[in-house]
Design brief:
binds inosinic acid; 5 helices; alpha/beta; Rossmann fold
């Protein structure tokens, strides 16, 4: 659906353009209870789809300048990185390989436990390779500090970090970020891969969660 149609409240369904009716929260046009929208849990939008898209184009241009002839191994940190690494790598018209790691995360909490565990390791040896770590958000920096130290022991040619969001007010560890998308306020955010208790990763933009969602 293009932007004009979306703004005009139209949607292309089954070969025909239909007008969308705005409904009061929780009710459909016939007054019946409707499924709640993900957006109902969002207090404010921090970064829109359009802002994310243009930031990714900027990041990709900087990465291409530095790595075009290096065939980097782009390492996504699961699970939050999945939309970002997909969009970022598709914006890079150059040779690269993609692999993933998974670490212990916050679970159902909004505060870091401070304990990092590798749940899934790389499939690819990195000795002599240029490694570009792709992360959704850096908060305290504990996860990346641990990962970088761990990967250094495997003797890569270089390790660089690209993060979409940087909550640098919350940083307790010294982590060198080479490519930074947005500086993020020190609030719990969801969407575009970021979750709360496994939910909201599929929200197509980044927003601040209403506190009542995690206080209830
Ligand atoms: P750090 O180790 O404290 O830097 O935390 C990094 C990880 O915490 C990220 O990869 C996210 O999974 C998670 N995280 C930190 N802040 C947020 C947030 O605001 N929303 C969702 N996940 C977050």
């Amino acid at each position: 659906m293009d932007r004009l149609s979306r703004e005009a409240g139209e949607m292309f369904i089954a070969g025909r353009t239909r007008r969308l009716t705005r409904c009061p929260a929780g009710r459909d046009s016939g007054g019946r209870m409707s499924t709640p929208s993900l957006a109902d849990a969002i207090a404010e939008t921090l970064f829109s789809r359009e802002q994310i898209e243009s930031k990714i184009a900027e990041l990709a241009a900087a990465i291409a300048d530095d790595f075009a002839d290096k065939n980097p191994l782009v390492v996504g940190i699961l699970s939050g990185c999945y939309p970002f690494i997909a969009d970022l790598t598709r914006a890079l018209d150059m040779k690269l390989e993609v692999d993933f790691m998974a670490c212990s995360s916050y679970g159902g909490s909004t505060k870091s436990s401070g304990v990092v565990r590798i749940l899934k390791d790389l499939n690819t040896p990195i000795e002599g390779r240029h490694v570009l770590i792709v992360e959704d958000i850096i908060d305290t920096g504990l996860t990346l500090k641990y990962l970088v130290e761990n990967l250094q022991t495997r003797h890569p040619a270089s390790i660089s970090i690209c993060t979409l969001l940087d909550k640098h007010e919350a940083r307790s560890e010294n982590v060198e970020v080479r490519y930074r998308g947005f500086v993020c306020p020190n609030k719990f955010v969801v969407g575009y891969g970021l979750d709360y208790d496994g939910q909201f990763r599929n929200l197509p933009y980044i927003g601040v969660l209403k506190p009542e969602v995690y206080q209830s």
